[in-house]
Design a protein that fits this description.
This protein is α/β, with parallel strands linked by helices. It contains nine helices and ten strands. α1 packs antiparallel against α2.
């Protein structure tokens, strides 16, 4: 299946054990710890008081997940240099309903309610680069990974009026895009084509959205079926470009604009998603 444009301007280990497991003897030169046996449950963490909190939860009838939450909360206070309340989560759980072991990878996400207006900007208006605010974008990497795994072809369509205004060069933009693909960690190239529209205010428009020119050219050159193409974005120009090109549009909430205030969204029944990951979850 093909898609035309994706616009992105965009563990405390706890285990409940039926029996204790025996560990093998270490080989020469290997470091080890004392063997620990437990009949009902076990909590493992680097901070003893955090471990105690998890054990207390298990003794009171709590589940492994309850104990993990308690242990993690304590680690955020007692070992803040190695653990934070907003840290990543990896879990292996037993699902009693499905009677199977399931894995959860909740790494790399930012809080869904973290919108642009809640991020403290630097004096120049940019997000602090070496801060938690710049590390992750909700759903973006997971969504792109899912779309690609389903066979969708990815294209990036970006307005960059800063080039036309003289703020930076197109070479600077190429470097930023290369770094973006590197940080996403999905392999390069991630996008088949990246269209950069450099036009500034008052300059003749060639590709700048809402112009559909790049979308139409890509459909023709790539032999794509417009009925199977999506344009996903957060601005009115993104939606307008999709509609003008005759492909499907989807709006995502990034905090930059409010899709509900865009008349095209209501008039054309454009679906609105919390983030790109939520959109990608609907792809088949």
């Amino acid at each position: 299946m093909n898609t035309t444009a994706c616009t992105l301007f965009f563990f405390s280990l706890v285990a409940v054990l039926p029996l204790a497991a025996a560990w093998g003897k270490p080989g020469r030169g290997e470091a080890t710890r004392s063997v620990v046996h437990a009949k009902s449950g076990m909590v493992a963490a680097a901070q003893p008081l955090a471990v105690q909190a998890g054990l207390d939860i298990l003794r009171k009838g709590g589940s492994a997940v309850d104990a993990a939450i308690a242990t993690n909360a304590c680690l955020g206070l007692m070992e803040p240099t190695a653990n934070g309340l907003g840290g990543d989560l990896f879990a292996i759980l037993w699902d009693p309903a499905k009677k199977e072991v399931v894995g959860l990878n909740a790494s790399g996400r930012a809080p869904r309610q973290l919108t642009a207006d809640k991020v403290p900007a630097l004096p120049d208006g940019t997000i602090p680069l070496h801060s938690p605010w710049s590390w992750t974008i909700p759903g973006a990497a997971d969504g792109l990974r899912r779309a690609r795994s389903l066979g969708y072809r990815l294209f990036l369509f970006t307005n960059q009026s800063g080039i036309g205004r003289g703020y930076h060069t197109i070479e600077d933009t190429h470097r930023v895009n290369a770094r973006m693909e590197e940080l996403l960690g999905l392999g390069r190239p991630l996008f088949e084509v990246i269209c950069i529209a450099p036009e500034g205010p008052g300059q003749p428009v060639a590709y700048r959205k809402p112009s559909p020119r790049f979308i139409l050219e890509t459909i023709k050159q790539g032999g794509l079926d417009p009925a199977l193409c999506w344009m996903v974005g957060d601005s009115a120009a993104d939606i307008a470009a999709a509609l003008a090109a005759g492909i499907r549009a989807a709006a995502v909430r990034t905090g930059r604009t409010d899709p509900d205030s865009n008349p095209d969204v209501a008039a054309h029944h454009v679906p609105v998603f919390a983030d790109f990951g939520a959109f990608a979850a609907t792809l088949t």
